[in-house]
Amino acid sequence: MQEIVQSVDRSLSILEVLSDYENGLGITEISEKVNLHKSTVHRLLATLIHKGYVKQEEKANKYKVTLKLFELGNKKIQKMDITTVARPYLKELVQKTNEVVHLVVSEGTEIIYIGKEESQNTIRTHSRIGYRRPLYCTAVGKSILSYMEDERILDIWNKSKVEKLTEHTITDLKEFKKHINEVRKKGYAIDEQENEIGVRCVASSVFNYEGEVCGAISISGSIISFTEEKLGEFSKLVIEYAEKISSELGYRK
């Protein structure tokens, strides 16, 4: 068993108790809740105040936690790299689906593949790390677009070279808007051979600690292995794992 430093343990206990009380607590109340003598609590509080983790409301004679712990946690979150955070989840998703899994971010009118985990299936998609594709014709791109304002979507559409990459690519703006509204309702987007013939994809967006879309993940496979019957199962999985990655990045609904 690891050695516990008593003073640190007690200080953290005080912080945990105070975090539950927005209006603060007095010395006696804290003493009772952490089961410590008031003189000990007073001494520990003095140190916590000195380090900026607790403040004293002199008029009410109560102690409250400050935002310093949040600031420390926020520094950690800000330094998190989406690729590093997502990688183990992408690997898990491959194991559950036996299909290719992608992680992308958006830039301008395009998505960029920044993560890819291959499956055991013989099918190989054209995607690779650093590969760019249009937002409008990929599942990941459409998922990202679905969280944008309509004006922003129209701007991206107008700046894109909208063309039929396959016979299934949506190139009519009215139909595309209807499609995006469906994505918004479902929480996931589908690419039915719109970007690559013979390949079906389902995708969901990833959010950062500020509540902003910072990327998307997808499950991609041959229409032979990734059948329409699997779409229900895979759509739930891609949403579940997008939420796991988002949570790891600090996102809270």
Helix content: 40-55%
- Which regions are unreliable across 5 or more consecutive residues at pLDDT < 50? none
Give the helix tally: 9
Residue-averaged pLDDT? 90
Proportion in β-strands = 15-25%
Shape estimate: elongated
Supply Rg: 25 Å
Distance between the termini: 37 Å
Compressed to H and E, one letter per element, the order equals HHHEEHHEEEHHHEEEH
- Assembly annotation: single chain
| Secondary-structure-derived class | alpha+beta
**Main sheet, how many strands, which sense, barrel?**
6 strands, antiparallel
Q: How are the strands of the largest sheet arranged?
A: 5-4-3-8-7-6
DSSP, total strands: 8
Short summary:
With 253 residues, the chain is an alpha+beta fold.
Describe the structure.
This protein is an alpha+beta fold and 253 residues long. It contains nine helices and eight strands. The chain has helices at residues 6-18, 27-34, 38-50, 68-78, 82-97, 139-145, 150-159, 173-186, 231-248; strands at 54-57, 62-65, 100-107, 110-117, 132-134, 189-192, 199-207, 213-222. A hairpin with a 2-residue loop joins strand 3 and strand 4. The longest helix has 18 residues, at 231-248. The chain starts with 5 loop residues before the first helix and ends in a 5-residue tail after the last helix. The mean pLDDT is 90.
Fold topology:
Blueprint: H1 6-18, H2 27-34, H3 38-50, E1 54-57, E2 62-65, H4 68-78, H5 82-97, E3 100-107, E4 110-117, E5 132-134, H6 139-145, H7 150-159, H8 173-186, E6 189-192, E7 199-207, E8 213-222, H9 231-248
Helix pairs in contact: 1-3, 2-3, 5-9
